[in-house]
Design a protein that fits this description.
By secondary structure, the protein is mainly alpha-helical. The chain contains 7 helices and 2 strands.
């Protein structure tokens, strides 16, 4: 609530020599903002850092929950499963970019892995009936590109954030390398026998593990942001 305070200033020069003469005195009012009601858009830096940490934490929990959806992909048909993979990647990429904007350091570099993830998801959503091989190829390229970007990001981070970024990059690298190593075998198998539930299940678990690694990394980043508040 706004309060007003009156201030009596001394008379102007030449207003009179009688000290009891108050005819020349001036009254000025000033507005006082209560300290309990800060101006909108401002606040202590600790509160802002706490809000950023909460946002990053919510993003990490959300991406970990999405890993359960990725693990259930074998229950869908191939076309629906490919579209679902694309949707999961697109949403995860956008959530990760939002979390990256809330980070205290390396914001621009932190946005790039989410951007690559969203791009891979949109690519799958545009052609969901292209088959399992195309989906595996796109996800393999996404994992390898993502691990490079996260590894570069980790070089500019500090403390435990750097450690968890490195673990996330290593996880994506191992998953991408496993898909790349099995791509020729998968091609031969699909050529001879077609898409099988076992291949789809293995592919979905790779996606789920990557989501878990990303979400866990964001939870650690949120913890570091909160401890620095």
């Amino acid at each position: 609530m706004l309060r007003l305070r009156a201030i009596v200033l001394p008379p102007l020069a030449g207003a009179g020599d009688d000290p009891h003469d108050i005819s020349g005195q001036r009254v000025v009012t000033e507005a006082i903002l209560p300290t309990s009601a800060p101006i909108a858009g401002t606040g202590p830096p600790e509160a802002r850092r706490g809000n950023r940490a909460m946002l990053i934490r919510i993003a990490g929990i959300f991406i970990i929950m999405m890993s359960a959806g990725a693990a259930l992909l074998p229950l869908l048909g191939l076309a629906m499963g490919t579209a679902a993979v694309g949707a999961l990647l697109a949403v995860a990429g956008m959530v990760e970019m939002i979390a990256a904007r809330a980070r205290r350091e390396t914001r621009l570099l932190a946005v790039l892995p989410g951007l690559v993830t969203a791009f891979a998801g949109v690519s799958l959503m545009l052609n969901p009936i292209a088959g399992l091989l195309r989906s595996v190829t796109i996800v393999t390229a996404w994992l390898l590109a993502r691990c490079i970007l996260v590894a570069i990001n980790s070089r500019w981070a500090h403390g435990r954030v750097r450690l968890w970024l490195g673990l996330s990059a290593a996880t994506d690298f191992v998953l991408g390398l496993s898909l790349l190593a099995g791509l020729s075998i998968t091609t031969l198998f699909v050529t001879l026998f077609g898409d099988s539930p076992q291949l789809v299940a293995g592919f979905s678990w790779v996606l789920a593990l990557s989501f878990v690694a990303t979400g866990t990394m964001l939870l650690e980043v949120a913890g570091c942001e909160r401890r620095s508040a």
